[in-house]
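Page 37, top half.
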Amino acid sequence: MSVLVEKPKKVYVERTLRILHVSDMHCATDSLAKVLMREEYDLVIATGDFECVDTAEVLARARGEVYAVTGNMDNPAIYRKLNNMGILIDGKIVIYEDLAIGGIGGLDFKGSMSRLEKELKEFNKIDILVTHHPPKGILDEPRPGYHIGLEDLKKLVGLVNPKLHLFGHVHEEQGHVVKGGTVYVNSGPLIQGYYTVIIYSSNITVHKRKI
């Protein structure tokens, strides 16, 4: 006699991810070290302008996974350091748990953008977009009416519709905006003490921090 036993249904539990976002360190090595020790997080994302190699090295102290892109003020030595640390995602898409994270650096924006477009043919999605520059028209005004965001990034966001877009570059535009299903975050310059903690789940919440 056989007995049919019904298998229990799989229960999916929503993952809540704490992301520490830092940008525009500009050699603020001690500030970065302090933030990495102070906050609780699962993932650190740094969006460029380290300027000093020892500032980039501090990311090795993080207690979670780390991803970084270069900024326009960075140099090849910083690119090599981040790459040797295994955390550089300029022109790459990496998978963290079930999230596709795509990066475009500021040191070689065009080359980084071109490589990412090739990666998209394989992955076909980006959940979290990480760039140094902002997209055109979003938190990109160093002074009122003067937009310095990049049109190519605006087009990319429209194509892949990431849930979250992290960037820096424009020190004067710290904040976040929700538009078209994407949460855009400019954490502000760490050199001035600014950073954010982002709670990533079905609903994204952004918490501004200052040292």
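Page 37, bottom half:
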Amino acid sequence: MLDSLSAQIFLLSLPVLAFSIVAHEVAHGYAALKQGDDTALMLGRLTFNPLKHIDPFMTIIFPIVMLLVHGPVLAGAKPVPVNPRKYKRFRRGDIIVSLAGIATNIALALICTVLVAVLGRIPVIPSAESTQTLLQAMMGWGVVINLNLAMFNLLPVPPLDGSHVLKYLLPPGWAMGYQRVGFYGIFILLLFLNTRLLIWWMTPAFVAARVLLIGGAQGFAPLLPHVLAPWGAGA
């Protein structure tokens, strides 16, 4: 069962999380299109319609489980299909497409930071105070969620985005074996969730979120301490 605070956090973060993971996937598809691969476009995946990107486990079940165990608010969408054989330059295209989603999440985190600061400094209109507070809280979660998504996708575990970059730094024989790990990627990630390794890996995202949010914290919603606390689990 979700307690009242967890329910609040879930309701505030859900719209931002949904938009962020969809933007991440659309960025992959658009970057692939620019590299010469129109697969995502032809399959109708270059859209912000969330119904086109829902994956039952990664989009719905996984974030709820993470919230229940007070882990980082993370989720994933159904991967946008790409065909690297269509890239104008295979290696360059693969790296650009892989990093496009991460770059998009970082950009969204910076945009949300600006909005947190703006909403915290504009005069409060009594009739719209609750709406302003709600929007600021959502933007605060936008910072945390997008930095979490960027850092999580940088994990060098196939098939996450970070693995598509790391494989080019390995000798060819090692790279082939490394990519085969992708068949067991979900099991490796589940193992990560049960160790301190994930907390260690994700720490830079939370440090960055604290730095970005503190500057715009004036007038921030009462949930600010929970946004800034590691894993969103209280001050």
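Margin note: The radius of gyration is 19 Å.
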